[in-house]
## 1
Amino acid sequence: MAAPKKGRRPTGAQGRPGRALAMILIAMVALTAGMFISGQTTPRLGIDLAGGTSITLKAKSEPGKPNAINETNMNTAVGIIERRVNGLGVSEAEVQTQGTDHIIVNIPKGTNEKQARDQVGTTAQLYFRPVIAVAGGEPVAPEGAPSPTPSAGASGAPKAGDGKNPSPTPSSSATSQGRALSEALKAPGTPTPSATPSSGASKKADDPKATATPGATPAPTPPAADAGAADLQAKFAALDCTKEDQRATAGKGAKPEEPTVACGKNSQGAWNKWLLGPVAVEGKDVKEAKGVIDPQRGMWIVTMQFNDKGADAFAKVTGELAAKQSPQNQFAIVLDGQVVSDPYVSSALTGGSAEISGGFTQQSAQDLGNMLSYGALPLSFSEDSVTSVTAALGGEQLRAGLIAGAIGLALVVIYLLVYYRGLSFIAIVSLLVSAILTYTIMALLGKGIGFALNLPAVCGAIVAIGITADSFIVYFERIRDEIREGRTLRPAVERAWPRARRTILVSDFVSFLAAAVLFVVTVGKVQGFAFTLGLTTLLDVVVVFLFTKPIMTLLARTKFFSSGHPWSGLDPKRLGAKPPLRSSRRTVSAPVEAKEA
């Protein structure tokens, strides 16, 4: 008789059930501890079960875009807002249009209302503009100058907006500022050249990087450019960024190819104002953005990765700004009309990436990265109203759903007790383990990704009871088949597992595939059903492999089950088992002596 191959476990080997049980016990303890540590000890409920907040947004017309409010732009805005507030599609936020110019956003209870309002109301229009001048937030009018100019600093000096130096103080000379602004008006769409003092001879007038010698006469500019520069300088001088109404209208209606003014805070919390050149890079050229913590500085920042077009434009503008003096070696990162950062440039940045810093918290950095990744809204919106909404279904409907689940679970338990008797204990404990895992994971997902449990999701969890019970039944029936063939319990448990395992995996794969397709092709509440169904299907595989099979192996060693007790559910007589399989020797007949002829 050939011996089994070395290294290969023969059929009927019992493995190490204790190791598998220890793994699932550790997982349950870790998930439960994580649930209590996070402070989210119950799953978040959807708006249909717990109510929430309803935000009404009204689309605003913008100068130069009379037909911007249309069905296409409104639907695009709905999609972007839904991705912002709904994340992976399981937070149960509802976003829909109402009429031709309104969007209704319903957010479940438990969501940070301020954060949600910031997410849905922010256009997230991002621009990178070269800095012409920067000053304190209050209006100033120095004698003999139409507008203030920040005192020039060294090329490597700390930037004005990062809190490393105080708010800039105005200077009495505005010659270089005015010349830079005039050049920006003459050549829209390109970074503004600097006009800094130089001890050498001046370069040709058509050289975009020309510098001015002290006392030299600046190149003449067209009257329209001079008038535009004077108007913008006067607007910059009069701008009071400490007043909310002026901050809201600063630079309103400015086109990307035009210079503009803007307000923003430095890291010290003081308001500054900026005079900015035309847009050099647009936010739509940002391919990916996310909030991360800088390990060297210990502060939260937003990192951005540009597409090919944005990377080329960013390398070009930073290369041009690096040759200038402060503040014209800085570029402002302008989000929805406000400057969020104004880093200086010492060399061309050619890596296709950038970062935004400026006193972010973890939440604000991640929110900004989220908005930039999903893109800017095609329209500007104003907040019409914010109201609290009551649960659409209420506690009574939730109780009805839970009662339905309890009835279904009770029927499954009764069936198991009547038909499988002692084996029903294994099934019930396995269902309990599955319930603990499902509950703790749902609670943690509510904190982690904003998962909210709505009524369809509850239905998905109820359906999962049947899927999990079906896996137990498949295994139990395979064991019974082996006993009917005349095998004792311990080898029957191990020989039945490979066939049962294959059937369980195929069945769960089909269920998970259906849930995945449903999650991808649907929206809204149906995604909650699909997500819960997929999650519980995966947990069914975990429970059967790491708990049901190992516990069955251990119980097969007990006298109650191994002896085939009538209440064990494995009584050979009740199952109609054949006589035990025994190895028997083939009887060899003695040779018959030939008779003599």
## 2
Amino acid sequence: MSGLLSTGSSALLAFQRALNTVGHNVANASTPGYSRQRVHMEARVGQDNGAGAIGTGVDVVALQRLADGLVFGRQIDSSSEMGRLQQLSSLSTRLDTLVSDSTSGLAGPWSNFFAAAEGVTAEPTSTAARNQLLASGTELATRWAAIDSRMQQLDGEVNDRIQAQVATANRLASEIATLNGDIAAAGSNASPDMLDQRALRVDALAALVGAETVAQDDGSLNVFTTGGQALVLGNRAMALGTTPDPYRADRLQISLQGADGKQMPLPSSTVSGEVGGLIEFRERVLDPARAELGRLATAFAEGFNATQRAGVDYNGQPGADMFALPAPRVDRHAGNTGGANLTASVGDLGALTGHDLVLRFDGGNWSATRPGTGASVAIAGTGTAADPLRVDGVELVVDGTPANGDRFSLRPTAGVAGGLEMVLDDPYAVAAAAPLEGAAASGNVGSGTIGGSRITDPAAFAGFAGANIEFLDDGQYSIDGGPPVAWQAGEPIRGNGWELDLAGTPAAGDSFSVTPTPPRSSDNGNARQLAGLDELDLLAGGTLDLTAAMSQFTGKVGGEARHADLALEAQGAINNQVIAERESLSGVNLDEEATNLLRYQQAYMAAAQVIATADTMFQSLLGAVRR
């Protein structure tokens, strides 16, 4: 009877624990990160009394947490990638909307400006047409600056988000370390719920900065970034931080606190998750887009100003710049020890790439590299005013003495669009007319005719009163009886501060007279050049016009956004598969739990009946003894 009572009691306790576990599963069916639990039972083996061993009941040997380490590894990998792509896709889409939308992009003001330039071409003496050109130019410059300002705001938002996510990551790492200590102290008796809480925080940490885990013998988990930097070692958490970029104090970099308490900058490739996505957006999408926006603004302003200076205005004076924009930016590295500063200017529009560079002085020589890849870039010159450093279309003059190892960050066009502004406010200052009027002598026998003209030196042109050009033969000419000048078809005639194009083939003895264009001229020769600037090949070594470059710019930003969207969509499908795989093993199935509840309830009742039977037998025995 004692054996029967013990057997029934053990069964009653075991199934009570099973019922409690089922209830716990049902209660946490919607709890994030919860893993289903199951009671593991083993039969008690009795002693062999010669007639064979008879069982003495059941024991609960373990409370099992239904989870798979391999599935968990795939889960944190997927969470890391989802966090990265969500940030990259969201921010890239916002940037794409900014540059391509009709209400915020450049397309509308760009078209309006060149339509206004066509208006001046059609009516070069019209004050209204000239005023419209200035108003359209102001609108275009304002839009360019507004887009750059929005890009700068995105850059600041990335900084703010990085700071916030780093703070959250540090909190999670600290909580994981605390849980590691509790789990290691509990040993094999660690609560499944405690393991779930740790796994949930590791997954959240992976979504923020990326994570890889290594299980330890004491049950703790060491957590590392995807680049191998330790975030949690046992019950110790390493603090992530942010440090200013050594070239740009307004931009933050990710760092890790070392054993000495100092922050060590981490390469951007060592983190993933949301922080990695923010950094990737900034470096791979935002920075190139802002640099290209500035390159387009530079080419437009420099090209338009050069064309303005080539003509004469309504008062007969050489044209003045219509737009102003800041010079390329050069920043010293915070660790420089020398006293040198660099002043930059655009020297060759066709060679201007807009790519950021790092300039380094070593052993008396300057070198240039790409900041992201370290790839070397050709650089020429000595850095003097007469022989400036020349790299990627930019010229730099060195002021002061650099020390070995000194570094400078060159951003040729980033942020330039934000400083673009209209500086011409007088409609009569629009240089619509070509600077020269000319005529062929009546006795000419060749087919040469006068074409366009340009001012090449405003100071020299100011004293020009007129000239006579005579061809000595079909390959030489002289100006006002001066020395012969070699010439071939397609080359301009070059005077003191001016150039003149000739079409056709002049013959020996042919002559042409030129005079400065007088004030209030109705000539539109230079206005045609201004209106056609959008189709002039100014970029990529003279092979790319502004309109095509604008289309490439918006297309590239849109392509980055679309690529990020597609990658996120694909990763979302993978993530759903991982979630489904985890749920199939660790998720709570209410139908299954209801079945288990009924089964354990019946078993519990049966165990109670066994105890009741043992009690009846015992009472019967007592009654027989009393008689």
## 3
Amino acid sequence: MTDPVPDLPRPGPTRALFVLTILTGSFLLFLIQPMVARMALPRLGGAPAVWNSAMLVYQALLLGGYAYAHWLAHRRPRTQALVHLGLFAVAALWLPIGLSAMRLPSGAEPALWVPWLLGASIGPLFFAVSAQAPLMQRWYSAATGGRDPYALYAASNVGSFAGLLAYPLLVEPRLALAGQSWLWTGGYLFLVLLVAGCALLLPRSGPAAQHPPLTSAAPTRRRVWWWIALAFVPSALMIVTSSYLTTDIVAVPLLWVLPLGLYLLSFTVAFAARRGAARFLTQYAPVVVLVFGSIVVSGHHDYPVLNAVMALLLLFVISVALHSCMYAHRPAPERLTGFYLAMSFGGALGGVFAGLVAPVVFDWTYEYPLLILAAGVLAPQHFLVPITAQLWSGGPKRRRIVAAVMLAVTAAAVWFGLDPEATLAGGSRQGMVFVMLAVLGLFAIGVRPVFACIVAGSLFLFGVYDALRLSAIPGARTRSYFGVYTITDRPGARDLAHGTTLHGVQLLGSEARLRQPTTYYVPDSGVGLAMRALPSLYRHGARVGVVGLGTGTLACYAQPGQHWRFYEIDPAVVRIASGSGRFSFLSRCLPDADIKLGDARLSLSEEPSDELDLLVLDAFTSDAVPLHLMTREAFATYARVLAPDGLLLLHTSNRYIAMEQVVAATIAGTGWHAAALDFSPSEDAVEQDASASQWLVLGRGPSFERLVGTNAGWRELQVDPRLQPWTDDYASIVPVLRGITIDAD
């Protein structure tokens, strides 16, 4: 006598419910990440170690959630429902979301303290929600009699993408942090109801309601490591692409959303039931790797928008190809949770490699060409046209001869192209070599070892070789979690660049030239005028604080009797400015400089009141705005640290954000007076290597009026009455992006 077959729910409504549940869970998961990071900003500061630690917390919790889903999937369906709903009930004790009340101990190591703080604040909630995607797919298969659930993973990534875009574009501009917290709380309760509805569809009787049987063969260890490798490369490449775009191409705010969004969309394409787009992109992925990989790594920045598009397209196509390969080798639905666990583990490893390991091991972004090469090796390959298949046919001996000829031609082409005077875009020699290697690579697609060698040769020629040459020069390059700093010499000057952003210039030659302030800090700039006015404003004992050390240029305004202190977040910058011997502003002008390492706002909060007469904030030259330095609470800290007649100088040169209007809105009604000075270098300033700049001066006493009266260039701030003041509870750059008008009401 056979067991009765239970009545299964109709596939249509059931699928809709499970899709909505997965969408909601993934949406909340990617909404909480930037939300909690925003909450933590005033307390923890903006040090990269903080955000790298936060990334590890999210990756670890996601991996833990997938491991929990894998363990739970081997229980009876009804047991799964009870346990999972119980977990939701326990996690609800952490609602509404917010940071734990514990305070950061003085001198605490962020790599250890930040994970503890974030884990204690949102750990149970993140853990419970992160299990949604794999667990709901398993429930869907059980509720529908074994239907293939893998296509539902696409819904998970659509939800993640929506959450990722919703926070900076919709949630943050319109809600303060308290409102954001209650919005997420409402979404969480809605998710619990959806999960409960899915649980009611699980079978109560018959074989499907018993302990889930494992009828398919377990994946081999080699297959599991294959899944991990396929997940590792896109995850690491996504982080590397974000860094490449925001430091080496252009530091446009919110640009980091694009790589992560395309990474998530690649899952939607790769796991879709309709395979047309995935097959097309996978087939031509080797071509994209071969052509775009070399151009992107070449570092040619005359066309930044084109480079950014190619980098994003490269990431998307590689991600689709490798994730499609995972989909093609997916296990049976009963082993689904183990498959996603391996995927999550590979993604976490990729994040650790690109975010933590590579900046320590490499002095340049060598991980970028390495990951592109790994993608070329891992991506599925097939002969694109019949002629290439004919070329490689005819037996092993002929294949070896063709391979040897191709490799010899590749080596000769690389040697021929090693011309330091030529570039990929403009040099005729390297242009011919690029075409030659591209043609060779097209004929090698389908023969993985030969294709990999051609890609490696192309990457070496068009990027790695020049990077190695510069790495071989002692002191020419330094890397930290903030990025890559490069020191280069040109006739009469030495430059410090962070990615493609100039951070300082020192003139070479006579003692006077070596002490000459340059770029944004020349004598007629806003900060130059303030520095020259210090003796008349505060006599000879002025107390000066500078946020942002750079090359130490401002130190050459120091005069005997003054007391100076620099606040710098990056130890690498301190070594460059004071210990490398390449820049001598500090050693010549302020050899005993007081430098305080750490996030500036946290460091200033520890200073006594009335400690400074002049505070210079120079934290905006890279076009990346540290929001926590520009809130009303931050300005209150500056006011406390400054003497009643003290001055605050802000460097607000920025190509993408209207910082002047932000400051005007934030200080309105707080007692500050403000003025702006827009400096444009004249022909006389060419010898000073002057750069255009905008400086704001803020004050609350007579020194403000005296300084502003020294130069007719000072003007009132531009005010946008529609802008809300930035606070620790509310700050959004979307309404103040140049060229973008968004009503935040």
